[in-house]
Fold these 3 entries.
Entry 1:
Amino acid sequence: MKFKSLTVGSVLALSMATMGQAERGSDGHVNVIYWQAPSILNPFLSAGTKDVEASSLVIEPLGRYDQDGALVPYLAQEIPTVANGGVSEDLTSITWKLKEGLKWSDGSPVTSADVKFTADYCMHPEGGCAQASFFDGVVSVETIDELTTKVTFNQPKPNPYGPFMGGQSPILQAAQFADCLGAKAPECTEANFNPIGTGPFRVTDFRPNDVIQMEANPHYRDAAKPAFATLTLKGGGDAAAAGRAVMETGEFDYAWNLQLAPDVIAKMAEGGKGKPIAAFGSLVERLEMNLTDPSPELDADTRSTRKAPHPILSDLKVRKALSMAIDRELLVEVGYGQAGRPTCNLVPAPKVFASPNTDCMTQDIEGAKALLEEAGWTDTDGDGVRDKDGKKLALLYQTSTNAVRQDFQALIKQWWSEIGVETELRNIDASVFFGGDPGSPDTFQKFYADVEMYANNFNGTDPQQYLAAYRCGGEPKPESQWQGENINRFCDPAYDALIDKLANTGDLNERGKIGIQMNEMLTKDTYTIVPLVDRGRVSAHSNTLGGVVLNTWDSELWNAADWYRTE
């Protein structure tokens, strides 16, 4: 695990010195476009990347991961370790110390009470915290003094950097969210849309699924930052329009997640107004298999648990056949080019955690057909669609609206038709699909379909928290406000035991072995998750925007305080 004691500002010290920044707000306005529009500015109520990253401009964690995956302090004085006394010798606790003099954007002091409150907020038994896995194994969070917070675990934690670390686990202001605990959390619209934060910007106007207006935080801890007085984050549209707005027209300064064919991006770059930037991390485009019956005839509670197993996908042979029919090399060629790699892994990086499994790499249509035959699915009426016990092998396959994803859907539907599967395609606006609205039937968490496709990743270079999301009981359900990332409703006591084993294993190689075993239980062994492409992160910034450092291990907007205008 890598640590850095430097401040984030020093990452770009040379560039900042060159530009000669004199005072906060001196560079005017900056425009950012996220074609998946943010729906909320509280990452504890949405696992959508768009919401987590937009929030990161305003609310911050105690520490982050930099562009190399190293841990760096943000609100904390330093990253706690055994060596500096911040982590106990027996690895059962971690003690964080806030920097002195920190203020919220309303001018009030930041204290350890805010840190403790954040834990209480996410761990509330009646609440639905999208980031609950960050607090896996936490027994208590206590304030030692105004700047010091101690987190105690139920067992030794060689990797204690779950709570309050990375963009998915920021600190909330206790005063603002005091009346928003438990089931009341999603009802606090003002707090969820306009959080008081410690980040470089504060919200002046938020229109969900549309646009956010921000201004420089007057109480930000560095008096010279941010360089921009105001910021607009425009949401919506599509990846192509976002790319053109930066690289061709110059209307925007930064465009996130250009999920476009490589030739399209190259053509846009010829516009001369901006340039694409790319890096690999742990982002995997994959198919999720629903292990429960999504039938609208069932009540919400039944649809959200394993009370009613999926009538088709509960059969491992069917899930495996669906995977075998896919040509991942062609998907990469069509969708990502050099910015993609075919993968059989949910966790493709770091290398120590990546399984050597390559079983899925070769498309095998005939093998998939044979497997379905073996499972009892045959075409009894000759219409090209297999059936069993009077039920057609028909699936609803959904994803968010995006040109590359719709290309993938079309190809996969064709391959599945070749093995006798009837597939209905559905695409949903990304702002809704990833929005986390507990009242919407169309979120990826509710998973009211048979198969769905998307990509996400984890903060930092250790997948412990990411893999812990599949613990039994972690499924989204009505009583959790439909939050939670175990969307497949996967449950295996043996897997849960590995979560605990990973949590108290210190040796990196042993951690890697356990992580690989967990990864393979979800993919190779059960085909609950069917990985497709290890995606490089591709974004773009204007030629006049300096200080940008693409980060695949945390929020892409992690160092927006250091951005500046070059001309």
Entry 2:
Amino acid sequence: MAEQRETLDVSDISLLYPDADSLRRHMLGEEAGRLSQITAEQLELYFLMDLKSCDFGSFYTCDPEVILYRQQTFEDLTNHPELARILLKMIPLLNDITELRRMGSDSAQSTEAYLYSITEVELYTTLLDLLRDELLPLAPELKSEAFMRFAERINTLTGSDYYRNLNAELKALTSRVREIKSVTIGVNLDSQLRADRAGVLAINNEPFKSGELLDKMLRLDFKNDDKTCIAPLVPFKKGQSDNQQMALQNAFNGAIGDVFRSSVRSWKKVIQHYVLENTDFLIRMMPEIEFVTKATELLVKLKERGCPLCHPEIRPISEKAFDAKGLCNPIVAMKLDTPVVPNDFTFDEQGMIYVLTGPNRGGKSVITCAVGIAFVMAQLGLPVCADSCVISPCDEIFTHFPTGSEDTIDKGRLGEECSRLSAIFEEVDEDSLVLLDESLSSTGSFEGAYIAAEVLEGFSMVKCRGIFSTHLHDLAASVDRINESTLQKGGVRIDNLVAAIEKGSRSFKILRERPDGKSYARDIADKYGLSIDKIMQKVQRK
């Protein structure tokens, strides 16, 4: 019998991880899947979402159970747009709590620490009141495990006697602090009327009044009482050096701190034993909250642009399944005002690796990136841009795209490309996805096709899934020869894809067929008037 997974503790509620084990592995950086920053950049993922407190690799996973848990989370978010708005309201409150903790850490027993603690509890109760008033009414309609757990936790916290008592005590404490307007200072004098001892006699809820005649006339009050100043103690903060002002301020703070010392100690215990415990899980959720709210915003924009969205069927990693109908590239959908041309794409026993050829700007790079982005979105738990999709997650996505900043001084551009390809072979395995776009284009077609054939044979023996988008038509012609060599040694089959040309124009449709380089050239030549017939027509008109 399989070992039962540890139940997720209520204090560790997560929007993205279903149990304590998966959350622990995430917090410790032990995720089975990996998405590098360079891959995220080359797939232009940051165009889709501008993340501040996390990145795409933070939540990339190849655990099917985690992915399914997230799909439910995003289902609730898309069905109830108000959920994202509630989460967004949480962020400034959580940021303020985090900042207060930082500010109060250096003044453990000071008056400032006391005030910071009171403010933190105020923020905490404001946050819980927000969730009680806005999240809990939605609870009966929520279906995801994540939001049901979250609502249950908030209901437990806000419904407890402790929470009600905390609110009552907080109200009394804040009234006590905020009503302080002045202090009464007592000073003992020696026989020569010099200050001997000084201290705080009382804390008042009214400010003292000036005793000067002009001030009395302005306020139309000529009576003197125990709050009327008969003579200023010093010209406060006027003509004093910074050190003198600091010394006087420290003296007042120290005296007031002594008054509140017992309150500070007792109140800090409340913070440490209750508030810290019940805000830590919310603060830990901040990167998750940013990710799910921005991802939901992206899904809304894609839907508005008519981009198809579906939750993929998740299959075991070992099946290496990928079958997308009507697949679109969301980057293109966001950039263009015209409808995106959808394509079907499949990895199967007849083709785990593809050589994709066709004309420049014919859609080769678009579909290559679309496949990579579909894996990323699926493994983040998001819907993918397709009519339907079946997918086995991959443990890592390797990209080899033109970077525009190759280290060509020492190696040359070809050497740099080969170096990056060699580095991929050091890490790639059969559960990986490899996307190559115009690799080895920096050399002649003969040399490029020769090296590319060796690379393809290597990926076939690794048994990974991959796409090699290229202008090297000689490479496409060598697919049968490569298969003959690798299949008998246990490699996976390589197949051809072509970016279609229809009547001399790019259709942006990707077809699973053998390429015909001559027909592409003939169509393009005819379109631009460079076929021999059209050239002769121009020459004869002279």
Entry 3:
Amino acid sequence: MNGVEKRKFNRLVNNPVLEDYSLRYAPSSFRKWSPWAVYLSGIGGIAAMAGYAIGGSLAIQYGFQNAFWAISLVSVIIFLTGWPIAYEIAKNNIDMDLLTRAAGFGYLGSTLTSLIYASFTFIYFSLEGAIMAQAITDYFHIPIFLSYLICGVLIIPLVLYGMTFLSKFQKWTQPVWLILLLVALFGVAIRDPHSLTQWIAFKGQSSNSGFSWLMLGAAGSVLMSLVAQIGEQADYLRFMPDVTEKNRRSWMWAVILGGPGWILIGGAQNLMGTYLASYVAPRAGMAHANVPFTMFDYAFQTVFTHPAMALAIATALVLLSQLKINVTNAYSGSLSWSNFFSRTLHTHPGRVVWLVFQVAIGVLIMEMGIFGAIDKILAFYSNVAVAWIGAVVADLVINKKLLKLSPNTIEFKRAHLYNFNPVGFGSMILASLISIVAYFGTFGAALQAYSPFLALLLAMIFSPIIAVVTKGKYYIARNSSYTLPAGMKTATCSVCNHPFEVHDLAQCPFHAGAICSLCCSLEAHCHDECKTKDEVAAEQEVG
């Protein structure tokens, strides 16, 4: 044991309902939900009003035609990149960070992607919260800064108990949300049939009502930030039950629809946003046509003749939608911050602490005013987020399946990984840097408009090239087949004395026993003793 004391966690970490197995493999003993229950939990967050706001903004700025083709193109890309990630997450019961470690980034290399993912969650938490706050202010006539604070604080108790509560919350609120949404959309279409013709002809503020390749690229660049949404779907999909002959079909459909299939709803919302913006613009002006609360207020006025009733129902829909999405943003943010700080600070006070941290950042950004600059923020962010996802997908599909240079298993434990793997980490850095330079116009107007698409292409090219050059030597630092004796399902961690399934344990020479993945991550004194040349050689002889 080298004189190292046993680790003791606080009550927040020791409570599996509060902690929700952040930083580690989700054991089968906790994964008691059916495939469809997991699907409903994961898809509940797609109620987001930001989808309408983004679609409306694109229609106003670039016109319907360019917005439509941008939404269609990016939806296909999101589905294709999301599928291999969703499948591996559900199959191996790990989150996006643990998958990134295994898919070419290494143990510390994925720290940067945890920060990228955390940025995605608090950007969208702030955007969704700002939409919710606007509805509260407009209806209850309270100061906007106070509405921002309410929108943040209200989320904390809903996310406190993780998947245990969220699965119920999303399930029971889904029918209400869907009914209200359909009433609004069909109300506009039926009461004003000319709105469909006006929608297709809508050119927004653009002087050109026709198709433009540059406008398509610029609109698509904003939408490409949504590629990272698969990370939030993964936070639910990791709780999928094990595949059996009995549940194989339902398991596969739940992963498809709850993983990459989120864009079927998300893309439809973007298109609905363009439709409602084209309807509201002549009535409220272009400046308000992309505000979801205004959109649905006018939509419900076509159904309910009394303005006060339409306003109340629009408020109810916006508040419900924003609660459904922001519990997901806050939950995923708490997981990503847990991953980031556990490796950088070697401490883990509990997921709940990082939940409060996530909400605090979100409220601060809301107070700074995010809504007016959302297009520019998302377009820039896309370059980095897309490079990350592109590198992960390239490793899972090309390096692992085609080139056979990436291990066939998903190894996420620190004890078996190099700190940095140039395959994923290097390809992401190179792709994002080049695409950011393109974003600022260095390579001309065409590549400026399509910079996130360039990031995706370059990441998927660089990843296999680097894998070939390095011959895949930086994936596994230690013989991963050398684990606990065969037949054992659980064993006790020699550091914290808690039992864990074998998937979450490694053999630790520093502590002279089994160690769980969390204790391994938090260990600051071992200096990676298990990965020294002598130790690795000894294990290979045993293996």
